[in-house]
Amino acid sequence: MAKQAPFTPQPSQAEMQPVLHLFNSGKMAEAEQAANKLVKRYPHTFILYQILGIAQDSLSKPQAAIESYKKALSIQPNTPDLHFNLGIALANTGEIQTASQHYQQAIALQPNFFEAYGNLGALLQKQGLLEDAIQNYQTALNINEDARGHFNMGTALRDQGKLDDAIQHFKHAIRMFPNYADAHNYLGECLRDQGNMEDAVKSYLDTLQLNPEHAGANYNMGEFLYLANRHDEAVAYFERSRLDDWQERALYCTYKAEHFDEFKTKLDEIVRTHKKHDAPFLATLSSHYARNFGVEDNYNFCKNGFDFVYQNSITELAEPNSQFLKDLLSDIDNTAIEVRAQGMIINGKQSAGNLFKRPEASFRKLGELVKQEFINYKNRFAGADCELIKSFPDELEFTSSWYVRLRRAGYVDRHIHEVGWISGAVYLVLPKDRKDPLEGCFEYGLHGDNYPQKHDDFPVGVASPNVGDIVLFPSSLFHRTIPFNSNEERICIAFDLKPQGDIFRRSNY
């Protein structure tokens, strides 16, 4: 005789009705409370755990939602929507690998689950696996062509440096959903990277017309205005954005506008109220002001940045007839990577996208070697009494990476990397025919970007790299390439490291 499954009591329709009414009315806190009360009496009721998970998700209680979804799956394990929802909750708590497994399980149970393909693609993209991400985005679009799918594809193509293709997908998303604010903004960013500022600004303004509080578009408008030296106008946009380094950018505009008293008041307030002095851009401003006006620099990100410039040789690149070096140069020459418009580069060009996230083995390998040099850097300066080392990133994530190719009379003007923590470059080709030994060298200092000067006493340092060398330095330091006059090329791969955090802007529509 077959063994019967044990009887598990279930709530009556009358008992469930109040819970469902609260849930369907969007009263999630009350629905959670009611469901929790009922589930104590009926601990094997699938729908109660499903309601709890969704309610807890909406109330920003991801850990509680995860437990509820798991309990629901223990009752009905072959429910694709639950695997999908659990994947979202796990991703929100940083459990990327487990989240990916649940998206894959949802797809296995429901092969046309295009939203699961899209979310899986987003996780792969976040891990830098762009080819895999694009494959999942394309599968999602093949199943169901929608605006979000085109938006996701656009972001991945942009990371690959394929700006023209990315633009087409953002435009397609907008055609399908004209009010898609994020798509308008990202379209603007791609147009900006191509040097088309007129159309880029139009896209930012289109975004703000749809959503005046859109953080990314306000930030991008602020950036456009400060690059146009319209500093007073830019401040309002940065302050409205409250995104990323908005506070530093607003303070920068105040300083460039030479409102020195206002600048000092705001800087002193930041120094007083911020527990950690962990903003390299603020460090640049603070050190410049201190040098300019002969006062103490009280912002302790890295007061003596010159002491933290690091130079080393990467053996795999520096050895004679290095095959690795040949592979890198071949991939730079032959891979379809678009160029990003860059006003600071004279007689040269810079790649678009994030080079270390591309699929080519040479770029991937170099990224791993650079990460090892970051570890060496941290060990070299261990114990230093500054936030640069105290808060050095545990997770090594490249905010950006790109190549720079310069030709005769080429150089990169003085600048800083505002979004970095540690910046650096690996040198692949250097001019040999130099009449002056400083030609083509790397110069760093405390002044640049036409900051207002009260005097010319701003020190500089010089690193003279060889092929295969890496130079790392605090992102707060100004730096430039000293022009060279020989009829040769100078090729390097530059990059920024930033502390782990959400460097990806979320999409909502």
Automatic annotation (TrEMBL):
Keywords: TPR repeat
Spans of repeat TPR: 46-79, 80-113, 147-180, 181-214
Pfam families documented for this protein: 2OG-FeII_Oxy_5 (PF13759), TPR_11 (PF13414), TPR_16 (PF13432), TPR_17 (PF13431)
PROSITE patterns in UniProt: TPR (PS50005), TPR_REGION (PS50293)
Source species, domain of life: Bacteria
Keyword Cytoplasm assigned: no
InterPro entries assigned to the protein according to its UniProt record, in alphabetical order: CHP02466, TMTC_O-mannosyl-trnsfr, TPR-like_helical_dom_sf, TPR_rpt
The protein's name in its UniProt record: Tetratricopeptide TPR_2 repeat protein
